[in-house]
Recover the amino acids of this structure.
């Protein structure tokens, strides 16, 4: 127990001011989370995904909304074209490393507690176009539009959005958020289509290597990109361990290449699944998460 406390002290914590901002606004902007070399490597690997098979959006009428199916390649092979690829870990160690990279993962543990898992990875490129109007939503489908935990509670699920390109002006594909909407529902949202231009929206700015943290219950989404540069981001989502991944039904094979902490974050509890497995967390949960 003493050892765990010492290690926990060596993990970074949010400042009191950041905690307050998380509670009140429902998002945090951490500058310089990735260094330029990491950003360059990730962009190179992301661009390379266009020519290899993977999970891409599929709007087949028989599939429920928001599903991705295994496809031969990305529809747009231009490195500056549109891309939306899920389940990234299989492609490169750089994507695995991001699962629990300090200090972002430390902050996520500070927010979520230690009983957490990784629920999704995604790479999105949004090229400049006047055809895409942007959109606004909560994550977690219908569910986290209805459930908003108290501001003093860890979220049920949250995400880290890593900027891989600079977004320093409005309408360049900015993440747009509705501050406070994670704890106070937006009145009348059922009767109108929320957009990045609805009253209360804030377009965030940032630099390549920065990360935004926000819970699934916060209304958010991409603004238009009317700039001159394709905006590229990675998304890493985390949920409470009793929830589940929405990239995998089972522990993915890539877990064999992962550290014990990364495997735990992929849902490997250290024993074969049996009914009740995710009800109480494994006895070594704190140790595995806090010691890496
Ligand atoms: O910014 C994007 O391209 C999509 C981000 C988003 O809507 C999300 O993270 O759910």
């Amino acid at each position: 127990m003493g050892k765990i406390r010492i290690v926990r002290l060596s993990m970074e914590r949010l400042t009191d001011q950041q905690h307050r901002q998380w509670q009140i606004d429902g998002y945090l902007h951490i500058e310089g989370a990735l260094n330029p070399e990491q950003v360059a490597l990730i962009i190179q690997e992301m661009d390379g995904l266009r020519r290899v098979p993977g999970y891409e959006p599929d709007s087949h009428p028989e599939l429920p909304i928001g599903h991705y199916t295994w496809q031969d390649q990305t529809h747009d092979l231009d490195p500056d074209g549109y891309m939306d690829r899920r389940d990234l870990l299989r492609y490169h160690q750089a994507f695995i490393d991001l699962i629990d990279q300090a200090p972002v993962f430390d902050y996520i543990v500070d927010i979520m507690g230690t009983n957490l898992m990784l629920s999704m990875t995604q790479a999105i490129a949004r090229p400049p176009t006047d055809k895409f109007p942007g959109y606004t939503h909560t994550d977690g489908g219908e569910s986290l539009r209805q459930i908003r935990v108290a501001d003093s509670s860890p979220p049920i699920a949250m995400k880290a959005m890593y900027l891989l390109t600079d977004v320093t002006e409005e309408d360049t594909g900015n993440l747009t958020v509705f501050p406070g909407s994670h704890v106070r529902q937006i009145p009348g949202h059922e009767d109108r289509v929320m957009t990045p231009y609805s009253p209360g929206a804030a377009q965030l700015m940032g630099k390549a290597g920065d990360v935004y943290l926000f819970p699934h219950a916060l209304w958010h989404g991409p603004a238009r990109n009317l700039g001159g540069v394709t905006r590229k981001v990675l998304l890493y989502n985390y949920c409470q361990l009793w929830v589940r991944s929405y990239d995998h039904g089972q522990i993915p094979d890539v877990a064999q290449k992962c550290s014990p902490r990364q495997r735990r974050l992929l849902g490997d509890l250290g024993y074969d699944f049996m009914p009740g497995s995710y009800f109480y967390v494994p006895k070594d949960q704190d140790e595995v998460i806090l010691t890496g």
